[in-house]
Amino acid sequence: MEREQLADFLRRRREAIRPAEVGLAGNPRRRTSGLRREEVAMLAGMSVDYVVRLEQGRSSQPSTQLLGALARALRLSDDERDHLFHLAGHQPPPADGVARLARAGLMRMLDLLGDTPALVLSDLGEVLAQNRAALLMAGDLTRFSGDRRYLVYRWFTEDAARAVHLPEDREHQARQMVADLRAVAGRRAGDPTVARLIERLQAESADFRRLWAEHEVAVRRASRKTLLNARVGPLVMDCETLITPDQRQQLLVFTPGDDETRERLDLLRVLGLEEFPTGVARPGQD
């Protein structure tokens, strides 16, 4: 670990970012054009004290999870992110492994979308990043670990994942996810991560075994869905999927399908994050 170089790199990247680039309001009284340490700490989900110690070269070796959070907070490019990992004494996440981070370009698009709910998915359905509007709509979808990181796994093994969709829509959603996983399995033939996920699903879900045996193939594209939000009621959302050229990551953008949904999304923004109930189904887990 190169503490002095790591400290210098983090400090310079923080000072180079304008608040507006990460969705923070500017203040004419700011003494610096870059981010404050407390703002980096908030965006990365860590303590201000730890950010200070990192920038002063006094910290212990940060974990790969903390480095990933810092890379997202500082909107690092892929090359900058890899450099950050090297300075901290870690190997960067593999280009096609389960520890991938959202691409820097997709992170910037999340920021630009503002009040439009959007999230970045891996091709296996792991939510890698989401903007505040998506967090309000669906809760924190990046908090899961193990097989539960994958939307398709939660769908077939947890009632709560299906409960946020209308009963009459659930068969269609299930078929869509299995068909998308079939397409991924074809593109990533021989990938042990994909093979293990399919094996676990076949062992744990009769519904998955039934749909997998039908061998339907379809990449996730545009769709309309109704999400049952615990605080404001049903949300009719049009979902547009933008896929990176290598098909490894997807940007999902949700727009209201009717005026009532638009009003309910406005209400969610007013309610904010503090009142989000615990122990309820989270919309958008599909």
Q: Describe the largest sheet.
A: 5 strands, antiparallel
Low-confidence stretches: 275-286
Q: Cα distance, first to last residue?
A: 40 Å
Strand order in space, largest sheet: 2-1-5-4-3
**Fold-level CATH name of the largest domain:** Beta-Lactamase
CATH architectural name of the largest domain: 2-Layer Sandwich
- Number of domain units: 2
Shape: globular
**Helical proportion?**
40-55%
- Element-by-element helix/strand order: HHHHHHEEHHHHHHEEEH
**Which structural class fits the helix and strand makeup?**
alpha+beta
InterPro entries: Cro/C1-type_HTH, Lambda_DNA-bd_dom_sf, MLTR_LBD
GO molecular function, one term: DNA binding
Pfam families: HTH_31 (PF13560), MLTR_LBD (PF17765)
Domain HTH cro/C1-type: 34-81
Q: What is the strand and helix layout of this fold?
A:
Blueprint: H1 3-16, H2 37-44, H3 48-55, H4 64-73, H5 78-87, H6 104-113, E1 118-122, E2 127-130, H7 132-138, H8 151-157, H9 159-163, H10 170-187, H11 192-204, H12 206-213, E3 223-229, E4 233-243, E5 249-256, H13 259-271
Antiparallel strand pairs: 1-2, 1-5, 3-4, 4-5
Helix pairs in contact: 2-3, 2-4, 4-5, 11-12
GO molecular function: DNA binding
Pfam families: HTH_31, MLTR_LBD
InterPro entries: Cro/C1-type_HTH, Lambda_DNA-bd_dom_sf, MLTR_LBD
